[in-house]
Amino acid sequence: MVATPIGNLADISERAIEALNTVDAILCEDTRVTAKLLLSRNIATPTRTLHDHNEQDRTPFLIEKLHDGARYAVVSDAGTPLVSDPGYRLVRAAIAAGIHVTAIPGPNAVVTALTLSGLPPLPFMFLGFPAPRSEARKTGFTTLRAAEQAGLHSTLIWYEAPHRLIETLEDLIDVFGPDREAAVGRELTKRFEEMVRGTLADVLEHFRTTAPRGEITLLIGPSAEDDSGAADLDTHLREALTTHSVKDAAALVAGIVKLPKRTVYARALELSRELKN
């Protein structure tokens, strides 16, 4: 598993170059993208495609070849393989088959953005790409917000497509609020690298006036230390009371917000009476 540059071709390591020169073939997402890197280093090793659409079908053949002594390097279009990129199925199958797997570390947009963001570096959680549709995206964000109210305290990181960034920022504001600390890394390590920092509202305003382009990494900081979920208690209870009894709704919501069960139950009773009236 060979990490390749996320933008600046000079970021490839000597070990990566050696590996790409000595394996039997390079398995890559897009041979045209990888060809630019190989050409820059005069690497003539043949390439084969390994992407989301063919990895499952190709894996048995590749495992057979590996058993016969073949050596492959797996690369993504940019960065570290498997991190929102292909390779997971092949690695799992190779491990199960007792085949030696190793990695040559290198660039990764998640860690690069985290180090530049100014947000707390530990703990952090990388969540891949948000759902492309707003409803599913908000559901995912709401689950994370509930986890925060239950005790999660972490910087959260996603990749995002530039044409969806503004909508995603709007959905984040709906769920986490406009004042949550945030950062967006764009075109990291490239000539037009940009790191936008501020609140979610600040970052959204920036990209409403400056259209986002290129590769995007999106981060929000952890919830406040004193975040108890009390502000969202009524919202959660009203939603739960539409389908649950007072007792069940209180039990469900008490598992979401960091408040005593007795307090949640008392408020559930009050809201239940209001809803009946």
From TrEMBL:
Its EC number is 2.1.1.198. This is Ribosomal RNA small subunit methyltransferase I. Residues 2-203 form the Tetrapyrrole methylase domain. It catalyses: cytidine(1402) in 16S rRNA + S-adenosyl-L-methionine = 2'-O-methylcytidine(1402) in 16S rRNA + S-adenosyl-L-homocysteine + H(+). Catalyzes the 2'-O-methylation of the ribose of cytidine 1402 (C1402) in 16S rRNA. It comes from the Bacteria. Its main location: cytoplasm. Residues 229-271 form the RsmI HTH domain. GO terms for cellular component: cytoplasm. HAMAP family: 16SrRNA_methyltr_I (MF_01877). Keywords: Cytoplasm, Methyltransferase, rRNA processing, S-adenosyl-L-methionine, Transferase. The keyword rRNA-binding does not apply. GO terms for molecular function: rRNA (cytosine-2'-O-)-methyltransferase activity. SUPFAM superfamilies: Tetrapyrrole methylase. Belongs to the methyltransferase superfamily. RsmI family. It is found in: Cytoplasm. Gene3D superfamilies: Cobalt-precorrin-4 Transmethylase, Domain 1, Methyltransferase, Cobalt-precorrin-4 Transmethylase, Domain 2.
